[in-house]
Design brief:
Layout: E1 2-5, E2 10-13, E3 18-19, H1 20-26, E4 34-38, E5 41-43, E6 48-49, E7 54-59
Parallel strand pairs: 1-7
Antiparallel strand pairs: 1-2, 3-6, 4-5, 4-7
Length: 64
Amino acid sequence: MEAYIEKDDIKKKLKFRGTVLDLLKRLDINPAGVNVIRDREMLSNDDVLSDDDVVSIQEIFMGG
């Protein structure tokens, strides 16, 4: 799979099958601070990813 980490402007290619939450743990990314997008669709932490997926991991910005 390919994961683009927007905050760091890095593309990572890795062999992976599992949930979005599993991927974020593997990449040491806090799931509360990001959205994961596949094919223009926002995914939940329980969505299953496969080895041929391409995802974008986008940081959530909050202000007040």
